[in-house]
Amino acid sequence: MIVIKPQVGVGAMLFNTNQELLLILRKKxxxxxxxxxxxxxxxxxxxxxxxxxxxxxxxxxxxxxLNELICVTNHIxxxxxxxxxxxxxxxxxxxxTPIIKEPDKIADLQWFSLDQLPSALTYTTTNALKExxxxxxxxx
Length: 140
Description:
This is DNA mismatch repair protein MutT. Keywords: Hydrolase. Belongs to the Nudix hydrolase family. One of its GO terms (molecular function) is hydrolase activity. The protein has helices spanning about 50-60, 125-140; strands at about 5-15, 20-25, 35, 40, 65-75, 80-95, 105-110. With about 140 residues, it is α+β, with helices and mostly antiparallel strands. The chain starts with 6 loop residues before the first strand and ends with a helix. About 20% of the residues lie in helices and about 40% in strands. It has one domain (about 5-140): Nucleoside Triphosphate Pyrophosphohydrolase. The protein has a four-stranded mixed β-sheet with strand order 4-1-6-5, sandwiched between helices. It has a three-stranded antiparallel β-sheet with strand order 3-2-7, with no helix packed on it.
């Protein structure tokens, strides 16, 4: 009998100086073939902040500073036996240019204008974008 337990998956919204959002094209489930924010799973005894910083460095080779928590998404796909709780941060890139460091997990990495995002976005990415826009509008 397979027991499915919720997992914690973290991610970060990273923008360049042109206000373009960095997205990665996923090679693995969940959401194979979809564009996603960079991130990954929280390890035992690791905070969500530590995990986000570590995962971004492992996946795309950059150091980041976490600015604020944007949202927490409940990513549940019963048919795929997936249940992730996903905190997503707004972060600033501190060093280097993002590159694919985990080619077994990432097919592509691109910067996108917010008005020209790809159509195949993960649920977590879509939710984070919606919450980001809501936060920006409430600050204006």
